[in-house]
Write a structure and sequence with these properties.
Helix content is 56%, strand content 7%. The chain is mostly helical. The longest helix has 17 residues. The chain is globular, with a radius of gyration of 15 Å.
């Protein structure tokens, strides 16, 4: 039941943000990344923002939490859904603007991270990488 609640919260946040079209691959990546964040970290928008921030090692954190189910409050049947979601996110690639461009921005990340990204420069990214960026922006818009 925890997983379904996490997915519902993620869906609501992404839909109300209006960042991407519901039903798109990008939306699905954001939904899955945000649902994993919510499920694995528990309640609290501030925690979710921190976990999805640009300088946080999100994928390593997810792998660590999924590898140690005893660290979860109630691993139960929700763990299988979280594991399947992580496998999909890590095995899927999407063509999108190069988010690594943010790392090249001098000084702190700009208030509008999109200002530091060349939208015409497209690369293949793991779906989780785009999903985490969308999740973080959706949380900021909440």
């Amino acid at each position: 039941m925890d997983w379904l609640c996490a997915e519902y919260a993620a869906d609501d946040l992404l839909r109300t943000s209006g960042l991407v079209e519901p039903g798109s691959l990008e939306f699905r990546a954001g939904l899955q990344a945000l649902a994993l964040t919510v499920h694995l970290s528990g309640p609290g928008v501030e925690e979710w923002l921190w976990r999805t921030s640009h300088d946080h090692p999100w994928s390593g954190w997810v792998e660590g939490r999924l590898a140690a189910p005893a660290a979860l409050t109630d691993p139960g049947p929700d763990l299988a859904l979280a594991l399947a979601t992580w496998r999909r996110l890590s095995a899927t690639e999407l063509r999108a603007a190069d988010l690594a461009d943010l790392a090249g921005v001098a000084g702190p990340v700009p208030a509008s991270p999109a200002a530091g990204i060349d939208e015409d420069r497209q690369v293949w990214l793991p779906a989780w990488q785009l999903g985490v960026a969308l999740a973080h922006l959706a949380l900021h818009l909440h």
